[in-house]
Amino acid sequence: MIKDVMVRLDGGSGDDARLAAATQIAEIFQSHITGLFFNVVPDEFGGANVNQAARAPDAGDAVETLLFQRLTRLHQPTNLRRFDVAGVLDIAETALPVVRTADTFVALRPNDRSNEPEELIRDLLFGTGRHLFLVPDDWIGFAPLDNIVVAWNGSRESARALAESLPFLHQASKVGVLVVEREHQNKNDNLKANDAVLHLRHHGINAVKYRAVGEEDETADVLIAECRSLGASLLVMGSYGHSQLHDLLPGSTTSRILRRSPVPLLIAH
C-alpha cells in the first residue's frame, strides 16, 4: 500500500501539478503527505547557482509559511520539512536518505520548463530503491488512474517497476502489459511479457498483453504513441539502458520518456 507520499515543493507554479498528484495518490490510498522544501541559500564560498523560488533565509521563511498553509488546506494528514541547502547537489544529497523512507516520491518530469533539477531526479531514481511518480508540469490531476500501461522488456528494472506499481494496478480497471518487439524477431519474442501477465493475474489483476513494433532507438516514441492510442492514464516502466550513465544520456529511452511522457510516469530502477 502507498501510505507515505513525499513531494518536493518550492513555492513556484510547479507546486500545483506536484500537489495535484500527491493529493490524488493520498486520496486513493488514504496516505500521509510530507512536503519537502529545499531552501537554497548562498554559502560563504560563492553562493548557489540555481533557479529557485527562495534564495535567502527571509525569503525561505515566506515560502515555508506559504507551503505550510497550502498543505494544511488539504483533506489528508500532512507535514512540511524544510532543509536549507547550498545548491542542487546538496538537494539530492539531502533528499536521498529522506526519500528512502517513503512509499512514493512525487515530482515533475525534468525538462527545460519544469524547474525540476535533473540531477535530483537522476540521483533519486538510482539511489533510493523506491519508485518515482513523475507528472507533466502542466498536469492538473484527478483524471482517474484507472488505465495503466506497464512497459515490459524482461529486465531487472522492469521487474522492479512492476512490483512497485502493484498498489496502483490493484486500483485500476484496465491494465496492459506492453512489449516493444523488433521488426525481425527471434523465436522467443512472441513469449515476451506472457509471464508478467500471468504474474499479475495471480495477484487478481486482469492484465492483458499488448505488442508494438520498434527498433531500440524508437522505443521511447513507440511507448508514447501506444500510451496515447490506448488512452493510458499512467505509464509504468523500469529505467532502460545498460548503466546509470547510459539511461539518462540525451537521446536514451529513459531520458526521452522522462522529458516527453504525456501521462504521469511511475519509474523505478
Question: What would you call the structural class?
Answer: alpha/beta
Distance between the termini: 19 Å
What characterizes the major β-sheet? 10 strands, mixed
- Helix count, DSSP H or I runs of 4 or more residues: 9
* Largest beta sheet: strand ordering: 3-2-1-4-5-10-9-6-7-8
Query: On the 0-100 scale, what is the average pLDDT?
Result: 88
Number of strands: 10
How would you spell out the order of helices and strands?
Answer: EHEHEHEHEEHEHEHEHHE
Overall geometry: globular
* Uncertain stretches: 45-54
Description of the molecule:
The chain has 269 residues and is an alpha/beta fold. Helices cover 38% and strands 23% of the residues. It has nine helices and ten strands. It has helices at 15-29, 57-72, 88-99, 118-127, 156-171, 194-202, 219-230, 244-247, 253-260, and strands at residues 4-9, 32-40, 78-85, 104-108, 132-135, 147-151, 174-181, 207-213, 234-238, 265-268. Strands 3-2-1-4-5-10-9-6-7-8 form a ten-stranded mixed sheet, sandwiched between helices. Helix 2 links the parallel strand 2 (32-40) and strand 3 (78-85). The radius of gyration is 19 Å and the shape is globular.
